[in-house]
Amino acid sequence: MKSSRKRISLVLALLMMFSLVPAAYADEAKAEARNLARDAVYMWSEAPESAYPDPGNKLNDGVFGTRNVLDPAWVGHLRKKTREVVFDLGEPKSISGIKAHFLQDWPGSAVLFPLTVSMYVSDDNVHWATLTHKATQTLWIDGPPVDETYAWDAGADGVPGAEDASHAYARYVKVTFTMHTRAWTFIDEIEITGTDGQAKGAVRVPPEEFKMLVPGEATAGIRDLSLLYNGHYANGDGDWSKEDIIPQISYVNQDGESVDWFFDGVLVLGLLSPDGRDFGGGSNLKDWNWYLDKTFAADGDMFQLNEATKEAGTKLGEPDHKTKVVVMIPDPGEYVTDFGDVDGDGKSENFNAGSVGEQQAMANRQKAVRWWMDEVLKRWESSEYSHLELVGLYWLSEQVSTSASGPDMLKYVNGEIHAEGLKSFWIPHFLAYKSYMWKEVGFDAVAFQPNYFFEEMSSERLDDAAYTAERFGMGVEIEFDGRMLTDPVFRQRYKEYLDGGVKYGYMTDTFKAYYKGSGPVLGTAAASEDPEIRIMYDWLYQFVKGTYQLDNTGTVHMKELVNQLEKGGQFKSHGAARSLTAHWDSVVRFEEQGNKEQASGHLDRFLELLEQHKQNGLVSGKAYPLLKANADYVAKRLR
Fold it and tell me: Which in 39, 139, 304, 485 has the greatest CB count within 10 A?
């Protein structure tokens, strides 16, 4: 009996021992890194084009495309907005790497690499943390088809916010890639390397609050930065007078009188010298001295800005008001071989690395920038502007150089700016290389350019620009020029920028820059007797003040405008505001009935009453021009 029990015990022991072996091997296999994407499901933010579709598994089927655009492994996207693809791993897993593989065939098949690919993780598919932003290293080049892999590697790149971590621990992975307005983007595979469960060294990456740049200390207190171009223009647009500037820094009525402040900061910058050389790269010491002499002359552009501020301040009862000023720093560029002698050693500076070596070329560029800064500061101090405050310097080049020294150059420039107690400003264009690294290289205040105004494209570009600005923590640039005064196409694009500020949230609590082309565009609009032109000036003022409305081309919005102005204390009595509202209700009622004649009659009486309120001091100098401009605009449309 004992022998029998011993045999049974031995068999059970052997069975238990062998049963444990698969479990041990399973644990070991579980810890082995593999492509987690193969078992995941994913969703696109926007479906690929039907000519290059994705049935739902092309990105994780392990099949890579060849360098042939006809290879069915490729998934194709065309224009529109930044694409997002979100992988659901089913449960939190330990992620050590992410790869996304793309094709470029330019100009042959009009396929370009994404300018930027970004990678994120999340626990709930709502709140996200950034792992990395990666720019193309191959760049956009002509030639035969090439492929490129954009990758985040925890070992090489690190896990954000966790110095010793080896993995990011999350359930969801998102990969985004930017789109070009005139090109396809081809992707075939996304790999997510990692292990099941929470591996040693795997950490949850705290989610971020993605938001646009809020005005404050970083922007030197500037909310709305007006760009004043004072370089060389054959038609003289770069030559500013006090009268030209007043409608930009102050809001003026239809008689040209200042009734409120407008933009709270001015960026003074130039693009070209009289010899046609570009201050964004390619100019020389002669050009730089010309610009400095023009800007800081005894009666130059900076003096005119000072006098405009002084006059507006006097009329507004704020004689001590100062305009905050930002001055440009030209980009020395990387190809000028004979810039000029900036330090008096008898040698012309050479910025070309191919001629003098990368280190010497960088040192020469830095020397030129330091010379410029010293000249600006010296001339500013000697001018003793009574109504201007220098708060920052602006890097003119609109992208990080694609050369290896590009980021280091910007770190030097911004370090020198900060050493002078000033803020550094930058306005990268929509397709700017490595614009996402603006904080890393030391910029303080950055506004992102949508570039929607300048070429025919979908208005989704504004949506995409706001999305990008929010992801990268930038402000937004509003863009228009003199074409909006004469061309309804550009007038509509201008309005879409303002509408976008309401739709996407950048009208309020966001740092903004304003590109207005060359010359006194706002002054021309402000002085126009055509209601359709004057109204564009008034809309911009309302936008800056945060009161602009989406539905402002019809009659209904006027009632809300009266209410806004009354809440802002712009009427002496509720009765004055109420009387205007009553007349306007009649305008709306008859227009809705299709009776334009009756509507126009009541609108005329509204204007008469508005004039009476002005003469009797019942409506403020700020409210009157807004109400009159809007009423005149509606009147023209009704008639």
Answer: 304
Q: Is the pLDDT of residue 319 over 70?
A: yes
Could you tell me the pTM of the whole model?
0.92
Residue-wise burial string across 507-524, b where 16 or more C-beta atoms lie within 10 A, e elsewhere: beebbbbbbbbbbbbbbb
Q: Which residue has the tokens 């003119």?
A: 396
> From the CB of residue 633, how many other CB atoms can be counted at a distance below 10 Å?
22
User: Is residue 6 scored above 90 in pLDDT?
Assistant: no
Region 571-579: what's the mean pLDDT?
91
| Torsions phi, psi for 53 (to 5 deg) | -80, 170
Phi, psi of 575 (to 5 degrees): -60, -40
Q: Write out pLDDT tens, residues 367-405.
A: 999 999 999 999 999 999 999 999 999 999 999 999 999
Q: Residue 197 has which token pair?
A: 């469960």
Question: 263: Cβ–Cβ under 8 A, 6 or more apart, which residues?
Answer: 224, 225, 226, 248, 249, 514, 544
3-state secondary structure of 485: helix
Task: Extract the tokens encoding 180.
Answer: 């070009």
Residue 26 tokens, joined: 């399973």
Which uninterrupted H or E stretch holds 515?
strand 512-515
Token digits of residue 588: 């709306």
Side-chain half-sphere CA neighbours of 138 within 13 A: 20
The answer to whether residues 446 and 213 touch, using CB atoms and an 8 Å cutoff, is yes
| pLDDT score recorded for residue 31 | 65
CA gap 344, 69 in Å, rounded: 57
Crossing angle, helix 358-383 and helix 285-295, to 10 degrees? 20
Contacts of residue 582, defined as CB under 8 A and 6 or more positions apart, other chains included, come to: none
Q: How far apart are the first and last CA of the chain?
A: 115
Which strand (E) or helix (H) includes residue 561?
helix 557-567
What are the residues whose beta carbons fall under 8 Å from the beta carbon of 71, sequence distance 6 or more? 65, 188
Preceding omega of 107 cis (within 30 degrees of 0): yes
Do the beta carbons of residue 544 and residue 262 sit within 8 Å?
yes
CB-CB contact of 324 with 315 (8 Å) = no
3-state secondary structure of 219: helix
User: CB under 8 Å to 593, separation ≥6 — which residues?
Assistant: none
> Is 389:322 a contact under the CB 8 Å cutoff?
yes
pLDDT above 70 (res 12): no
* 87-91, 146-150, 605-609: least confidently modelled range: 605-609
- Give the number of other CB atoms < 10 A from CB of residue 21: 9
Q: Of 420, 416, 474, 421, which Cα lies nearest the Cα of 450?
A: 474
